[in-house]
Amino acid sequence: MTQLSINTTQNVNINFTAASVGDRIVAQLLDILVMIAYAIVVGVILSQSGLEAAINALDNWSTMAAYLVIFSPIMFYTIIQESLFEGQTIGKRIMKTKVIKLDGYQAGFGDYLVRWLFRLVEIMIGNGIIALIAVIASSKNQRLGDMAAGTAVISLKNKININHTIIQDINSDYVPTYPLVIKLSDNDVRIIKETFETAASTRDYVTIIKLRDKVLSVTGIKNQSGNDQDFIRTILKDYNFYTQNM
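The chain above was modelled as a monomer; its predicted structure follows.
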Protein backbone atom coordinates (compact mmCIF):
# COMPACT_ATOMS: atom_id res chain seq x y z
CA MET A 1 0.00 0.00 0.00
CA THR A 2 1.21 3.52 -0.83
CA GLN A 3 1.92 5.62 2.26
CA LEU A 4 1.53 9.42 2.31
CA SER A 5 3.33 11.57 4.86
CA ILE A 6 1.47 14.82 5.62
CA ASN A 7 3.29 17.61 7.43
CA THR A 8 0.73 19.57 9.46
CA THR A 9 0.85 23.26 10.37
CA GLN A 10 2.19 22.15 13.77
CA ASN A 11 5.21 20.55 12.00
CA VAL A 12 3.97 17.09 12.91
CA ASN A 13 4.08 14.32 10.31
CA ILE A 14 0.98 12.15 9.98
CA ASN A 15 1.01 9.07 7.77
CA PHE A 16 -1.96 8.07 5.63
CA THR A 17 -2.58 5.20 3.25
CA ALA A 18 -3.37 6.29 -0.29
CA ALA A 19 -6.62 4.89 -1.67
CA SER A 20 -5.93 1.94 -3.95
CA VAL A 21 -6.70 2.00 -7.65
CA GLY A 22 -9.43 -0.57 -7.03
CA ASP A 23 -11.11 1.52 -4.33
CA ARG A 24 -11.05 4.59 -6.57
CA ILE A 25 -12.55 2.69 -9.50
CA VAL A 26 -15.33 1.18 -7.36
CA ALA A 27 -16.09 4.58 -5.79
CA GLN A 28 -16.32 6.09 -9.28
CA LEU A 29 -18.65 3.30 -10.45
CA LEU A 30 -20.88 3.82 -7.40
CA ASP A 31 -21.06 7.55 -8.15
CA ILE A 32 -21.97 6.75 -11.76
CA LEU A 33 -24.80 4.53 -10.49
CA VAL A 34 -26.06 7.41 -8.33
CA MET A 35 -26.02 9.73 -11.35
CA ILE A 36 -27.81 7.16 -13.49
CA ALA A 37 -30.44 6.71 -10.78
CA TYR A 38 -30.94 10.50 -10.67
CA ALA A 39 -31.35 10.65 -14.45
CA ILE A 40 -33.89 7.81 -14.42
CA VAL A 41 -35.95 9.28 -11.58
CA VAL A 42 -35.97 12.77 -13.11
CA GLY A 43 -36.79 11.30 -16.52
CA VAL A 44 -39.79 9.43 -15.10
CA ILE A 45 -41.01 12.55 -13.26
CA LEU A 46 -40.73 14.69 -16.40
CA SER A 47 -42.54 12.09 -18.47
CA GLN A 48 -45.33 11.38 -16.00
CA SER A 49 -45.94 15.03 -15.16
CA GLY A 50 -46.11 16.19 -18.75
CA LEU A 51 -43.17 18.55 -18.29
CA GLU A 52 -41.13 16.70 -20.90
CA ALA A 53 -43.66 17.48 -23.63
CA ALA A 54 -43.82 21.11 -22.49
CA ILE A 55 -40.04 21.45 -22.58
CA ASN A 56 -39.78 19.79 -25.97
CA ALA A 57 -42.37 22.23 -27.33
CA LEU A 58 -39.97 25.12 -26.69
CA ASP A 59 -37.47 26.37 -29.25
CA ASN A 60 -34.21 24.43 -29.52
CA TRP A 61 -32.12 26.79 -27.36
CA SER A 62 -34.73 26.96 -24.62
CA THR A 63 -35.14 23.18 -24.63
CA MET A 64 -31.38 22.70 -24.36
CA ALA A 65 -31.12 25.25 -21.55
CA ALA A 66 -33.96 23.61 -19.62
CA TYR A 67 -32.38 20.14 -19.81
CA LEU A 68 -28.97 21.55 -18.83
CA VAL A 69 -30.48 23.04 -15.69
CA ILE A 70 -32.46 19.92 -14.81
CA PHE A 71 -29.49 17.60 -15.26
CA SER A 72 -26.81 19.99 -13.94
CA PRO A 73 -26.51 17.98 -10.67
CA ILE A 74 -25.00 15.19 -12.77
CA MET A 75 -22.53 17.49 -14.48
CA PHE A 76 -21.45 19.13 -11.20
CA TYR A 77 -21.91 16.01 -9.07
CA THR A 78 -18.35 15.60 -7.80
CA ILE A 79 -17.59 19.25 -7.05
CA ILE A 80 -20.92 19.72 -5.23
CA GLN A 81 -20.55 16.56 -3.15
CA GLU A 82 -16.87 17.01 -2.32
CA SER A 83 -17.51 20.61 -1.26
CA LEU A 84 -20.48 19.70 0.94
CA PHE A 85 -18.99 16.54 2.45
CA GLU A 86 -15.38 17.72 2.91
CA GLY A 87 -13.71 15.67 0.22
CA GLN A 88 -16.19 12.83 -0.15
CA THR A 89 -18.90 11.79 -2.58
CA ILE A 90 -21.45 9.05 -1.98
CA GLY A 91 -19.12 6.57 -3.67
CA LYS A 92 -16.12 7.71 -1.63
CA ARG A 93 -18.14 7.47 1.59
CA ILE A 94 -19.15 3.91 0.84
CA MET A 95 -15.56 2.97 -0.04
CA LYS A 96 -14.23 4.99 2.94
CA THR A 97 -11.95 7.24 0.93
CA LYS A 98 -11.48 11.00 1.09
CA VAL A 99 -9.72 13.87 -0.70
CA ILE A 100 -7.09 15.69 1.39
CA LYS A 101 -4.42 18.34 0.75
CA LEU A 102 -0.80 17.30 0.70
CA ASP A 103 0.24 20.32 2.79
CA GLY A 104 -1.84 19.35 5.81
CA TYR A 105 -4.71 21.79 5.19
CA GLN A 106 -8.33 20.84 4.58
CA ALA A 107 -9.03 20.87 0.84
CA GLY A 108 -11.25 23.78 -0.17
CA PHE A 109 -13.64 24.67 -2.97
CA GLY A 110 -10.81 25.88 -5.21
CA ASP A 111 -9.07 22.51 -4.90
CA TYR A 112 -12.27 20.60 -5.69
CA LEU A 113 -12.87 22.93 -8.66
CA VAL A 114 -9.42 22.17 -10.11
CA ARG A 115 -10.02 18.42 -9.67
CA TRP A 116 -13.42 18.75 -11.38
CA LEU A 117 -12.03 20.70 -14.34
CA PHE A 118 -9.32 18.11 -14.92
CA ARG A 119 -11.94 15.38 -14.55
CA LEU A 120 -13.59 16.67 -17.74
CA VAL A 121 -10.40 15.72 -19.58
CA GLU A 122 -9.41 12.62 -17.62
CA ILE A 123 -12.80 10.93 -17.26
CA MET A 124 -14.91 12.16 -20.16
CA ILE A 125 -12.14 11.92 -22.76
CA GLY A 126 -10.93 8.37 -23.18
CA ASN A 127 -13.55 6.98 -20.76
CA GLY A 128 -11.25 7.38 -17.77
CA ILE A 129 -8.17 5.75 -19.29
CA ILE A 130 -6.13 8.94 -18.79
CA ALA A 131 -7.05 9.07 -15.09
CA LEU A 132 -6.33 5.35 -14.64
CA ILE A 133 -2.87 5.62 -16.22
CA ALA A 134 -2.05 8.69 -14.10
CA VAL A 135 -3.07 6.98 -10.83
CA ILE A 136 -1.09 3.83 -11.64
CA ALA A 137 2.00 5.81 -12.69
CA SER A 138 1.88 8.25 -9.76
CA SER A 139 3.90 7.47 -6.63
CA LYS A 140 1.02 8.87 -4.56
CA ASN A 141 -1.83 7.31 -6.56
CA GLN A 142 -2.80 10.74 -7.89
CA ARG A 143 -4.65 11.51 -11.09
CA LEU A 144 -3.78 14.68 -13.02
CA GLY A 145 -6.43 16.67 -11.17
CA ASP A 146 -4.89 15.70 -7.83
CA MET A 147 -1.43 16.72 -9.00
CA ALA A 148 -2.70 20.11 -10.19
CA ALA A 149 -4.68 20.74 -6.98
CA GLY A 150 -2.01 19.37 -4.62
CA THR A 151 -4.42 16.76 -3.29
CA ALA A 152 -4.55 13.00 -2.85
CA VAL A 153 -7.27 10.46 -2.11
CA ILE A 154 -6.64 8.52 1.08
CA SER A 155 -8.17 5.40 2.55
CA LEU A 156 -10.02 5.67 5.86
CA LYS A 157 -10.04 1.89 6.30
CA ASN A 158 -7.21 1.88 8.84
CA LYS A 159 -7.24 -1.18 11.06
CA ILE A 160 -7.48 0.12 14.60
CA ASN A 161 -5.97 -1.74 17.51
CA ILE A 162 -4.66 -0.86 20.94
CA ASN A 163 -1.44 0.49 19.43
CA HIS A 164 -3.38 3.08 17.42
CA THR A 165 -5.18 4.54 20.42
CA ILE A 166 -3.96 6.96 23.10
CA ILE A 167 -4.30 4.29 25.79
CA GLN A 168 -1.15 3.63 27.83
CA ASP A 169 -0.55 0.93 30.42
CA ILE A 170 0.02 2.53 33.82
CA ASN A 171 0.29 0.93 37.24
CA SER A 172 -2.28 1.62 39.94
CA ASP A 173 0.41 3.29 42.04
CA TYR A 174 1.64 5.49 39.18
CA VAL A 175 2.63 9.01 40.25
CA PRO A 176 2.25 11.65 37.48
CA THR A 177 4.89 14.31 36.85
CA TYR A 178 3.23 16.90 34.62
CA PRO A 179 -0.28 18.07 35.63
CA LEU A 180 -0.28 20.57 32.74
CA VAL A 181 -0.74 17.73 30.24
CA ILE A 182 -4.48 18.26 30.65
CA LYS A 183 -4.05 21.24 28.30
CA LEU A 184 -3.72 18.69 25.50
CA SER A 185 -6.69 17.14 23.72
CA ASP A 186 -7.22 13.48 22.88
CA ASN A 187 -6.38 14.28 19.26
CA ASP A 188 -3.17 16.05 20.31
CA VAL A 189 -2.09 13.02 22.32
CA ARG A 190 -2.98 10.64 19.49
CA ILE A 191 -0.78 12.63 17.09
CA ILE A 192 2.02 12.79 19.67
CA LYS A 193 1.88 9.04 20.24
CA GLU A 194 1.78 8.08 16.57
CA THR A 195 4.56 10.51 15.65
CA PHE A 196 6.73 9.48 18.60
CA GLU A 197 6.38 5.75 17.95
CA THR A 198 7.25 6.20 14.27
CA ALA A 199 10.22 8.45 15.06
CA ALA A 200 11.49 6.17 17.83
CA SER A 201 11.33 3.07 15.63
CA THR A 202 13.37 4.81 12.91
CA ARG A 203 15.66 6.64 15.37
CA ASP A 204 14.50 9.97 13.99
CA TYR A 205 15.78 12.05 16.89
CA VAL A 206 15.25 15.34 15.05
CA THR A 207 11.49 14.71 14.94
CA ILE A 208 11.48 13.68 18.61
CA ILE A 209 13.21 16.95 19.57
CA LYS A 210 10.67 18.94 17.52
CA LEU A 211 7.86 17.01 19.19
CA ARG A 212 9.29 17.72 22.64
CA ASP A 213 9.64 21.44 21.89
CA LYS A 214 6.06 21.60 20.58
CA VAL A 215 4.67 19.93 23.71
CA LEU A 216 6.65 22.29 25.93
CA SER A 217 5.45 25.40 24.06
CA VAL A 218 1.80 24.34 24.01
CA THR A 219 1.52 23.17 27.62
CA GLY A 220 4.07 25.37 29.38
CA ILE A 221 5.56 22.28 31.00
CA LYS A 222 9.14 22.36 32.29
CA ASN A 223 10.99 19.23 31.24
CA GLN A 224 12.07 17.27 34.33
CA SER A 225 12.75 13.99 32.54
CA GLY A 226 16.04 14.85 30.90
CA ASN A 227 15.91 12.30 28.09
CA ASP A 228 13.57 13.41 25.29
CA GLN A 229 12.12 9.94 24.76
CA ASP A 230 11.48 9.49 28.47
CA PHE A 231 9.81 12.90 28.49
CA ILE A 232 7.36 11.97 25.72
CA ARG A 233 6.61 8.61 27.34
CA THR A 234 5.91 10.37 30.64
CA ILE A 235 3.63 12.87 28.91
CA LEU A 236 1.60 10.02 27.41
CA LYS A 237 1.32 8.19 30.72
CA ASP A 238 0.46 11.36 32.67
CA TYR A 239 -2.29 12.23 30.20
CA ASN A 240 -3.78 8.77 30.60
CA PHE A 241 -3.53 9.03 34.38
CA TYR A 242 -5.36 12.36 34.60
CA THR A 243 -8.02 11.60 32.00
CA GLN A 244 -8.78 8.19 33.45
CA ASN A 245 -9.16 9.62 36.95
CA MET A 246 -11.31 12.65 36.09
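The longest strand covers residues 13-18.
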